[in-house]
Q: What sequence folds into this?
């Protein structure tokens, strides 16, 4: 477990560097997209979420833990999704795609309103783009912004028939830091950026 966490931290650090190269390679497109993203981000909190496979998938049966599916309080119309090329986690996604023992499941970034002392719920289907062949992802992300910022992730990943994997974790997060949510077979990275 410790070795896997260390490997992920190193890979994600390298992924950030790779992401800088990826963004530089598509500078013209990313610049125009980033300008529109920057204007959208001016009044809101920027969140990024990366889901990935780690190791081999277990055989069915179904994971019987429940995933909470609260009704979203922030609907698609209230969220400004960001192009993947503009995401800081894009480099980490590129690294994960190349590793045989890992794989990209879904990636997304968005800007949302940030009233103080508020709680909001987002449906993952409204903000994530699932990688080709990765199966289906559903669930929710709940954030609370008060004295501290907390993020609760309830993700259900169905990579193939008869197999359902649940990742459910809540934690306090800090701005501009990558936070790792762990499961035996898949994980998540959450990055929250403060409003501009």
A:
């Amino acid at each position: 477990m410790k070795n896997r966490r260390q490997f992920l931290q190193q890979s994600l650090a390298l992924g950030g560097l790779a992401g800088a190269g990826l963004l530089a390679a598509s500078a013209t497109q990313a610049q125009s997209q980033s300008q529109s993203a920057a204007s959208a981000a001016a009044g809101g909190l920027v969140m990024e979420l990366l889901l990935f496979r780690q190791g081999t998938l277990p055989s069915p049966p179904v994971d019987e833990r429940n995933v909470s599916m609260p009704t979203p309080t922030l609907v698609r119309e209230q969220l400004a999704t960001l192009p993947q090329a503009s995401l800081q986690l894009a480099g980490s996604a590129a690294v994960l795609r190349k590793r045989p023992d890992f794989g990209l499941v879904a990636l997304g970034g968005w800007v949302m309103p940030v009233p103080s002392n508020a709680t909001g719920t987002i449906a993952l289907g409204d903000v994530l783009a699932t990688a080709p062949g990765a199966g289906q992802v559903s669930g929710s992300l709940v954030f609370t912004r008060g004295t501290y910022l907390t993020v609760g992730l309830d993700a259900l990943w169905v990579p193939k028939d008869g197999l359902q994997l649940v990742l459910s974790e809540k934690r306090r997060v800090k701005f501009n830091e990558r936070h790792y949510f762990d499961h035996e077979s898949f994980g998540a990275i959450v990055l929250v950026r403060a409003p501009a």
